[in-house]
Queue: 3 jobs
Job 1
Amino acid sequence: MDTIKKIFAQKLLEVRAVKLQPQEPFTWASGWKSPIYTDNRKTLSFPRLRSFVKLELCHLIQEHFPEAEAVAGVATGAIAQGALVADELGLPFSYVRPKPKDHGMGNQIEGEIAKGAKVVVVEDLISTGGSSLKAVEALRQYGVEVVGMVASFTYGFPVAEEAFCQAGVRLLTLSDYEHVVAEAVKTGYIKPEDQPVLAEWRQNPGEWKGGAV
């Protein structure tokens, strides 16, 4: 698994799906300052990389969640990849909205899942885990069993790890923050002296202000 995390980290950096700017941080929608910006949707634009992500997510599901009877993607980032995974596995697919629609049928879950079905959730990116776990809760309230979640990338925030533990959801990802930083140093994308700054941010992202340690 570590080999896949390393390979995928390389690929994310190659297509600039991940950008690292420890000295010129980004500002997230939440208002947090961040030395990293991740846009895994870029992987959909590269056929070979798109296929790599699809197949490796399938391998995770087949190895760790072989009992899965359906796939659910988290809107909007994981809809496309979730559908590709479900198609490859020959399983039903649905996706979960952040909240129920305010018109029509008022659906939050789009598609059909049999009540009591064992469902694996496909996610794009894990930050704090809040939106991902809201999707899990919506599925549980719908009446299905969430057997686990697979995702392309996680920042590995302690708050997210605790949230997934409390929710009883096993999370597996293709790569993570540590592997991206390691590959970025190896290739000269960032300097070795940037690593303490990057490590400090991940431990307390909400309070991090940027700059050198």
Job 2
Amino acid sequence: MILWITGISGTGKTTIAKQLYRKFKKKYKKSLYLDGDEIRSVFQNNLKYTLKDRNKNAERFISLVKYLSDQKINLIISANITSNKYRLIARKKLKNFIEIHISANLKNLIKRDYKGLYKNALKGKIKNVVGVDIKYQKPEKVDFILENNGSKKEFLNNIKYILLSLKKSKKKFF
């Protein structure tokens, strides 16, 4: 089972992924959480944040996920895939793939901008920020869509909905 959580920076990918992972790990011991920023460091941070390098990173990440999934490990992933092209590649290459897309309006993203990405990008201090100077392509095909414009408590209520839906699905867990 692969739960790939996408969305631009600050939407809550990591927040929801870590909670889902805790729930999964209790029931399915062969579960692993992967974070996009951490995986970049595993690959020695040798890529920048240009669209070209983001796509190269997506290729690497998809290959890693395929390898781990083929080992019969449930994966909960919080990592953005910037383009629909690579989302479709992931969907084709990966079995038991479920994409959870999280969105939030820019006003809220700027408000909870703990990395300072949006503020610095809007001031012109940094470049290659998805949602500011790199256009974000919303997913064309997605299994779950979550909005994160309210409170953290409201947002985390989505976990119950996701788990219930997965339980009813025909997807295979390890």
Job 3
Amino acid sequence: MQLINMEQMNNYRIRWTDGNDREFEEFHAITENFYNQLVGGPQNRQSFIPGNQSKDVKYAMIVYSDEDVPAACSGLKEHGSGDVEIKRVWVQPPFRGRHLASLMIRELEGFAHERGYRRTVLMTRERMDYAIKMYEGLGYKRIENYPPYQHMDDAVCYAKNL
């Protein structure tokens, strides 16, 4: 297990795995439920679900509290030439308000850069204004929606060069 080397994260540690990891799959199920509720049910996400399977996440990050409780997760999925897509940024409710999501994004960016990726891309929903504010604050720029999100009215895509 690798310790996060950022001072703000001194009470947390991360474990890198992949999308087939049991704990990451549990987080994935939590996020699926959240997104289903956000858009009014899985029937409203049919075009989205096939491209967002846990097994497709090449690098998964699980953040643990100092009490060894899984507190947050995120992942990276290869996406085109030199790009990697940030997936499933999630912080469990008891750990929110501690800037874990933005710290995870920075860690993902460094991890991706070390592996030769040139750019991170991501998709969020227009109504998730708190996520948009965070991404823009971290230097992400809005881009044209990329597949499979190009026909999703509520989807917004962002990118950042590493």
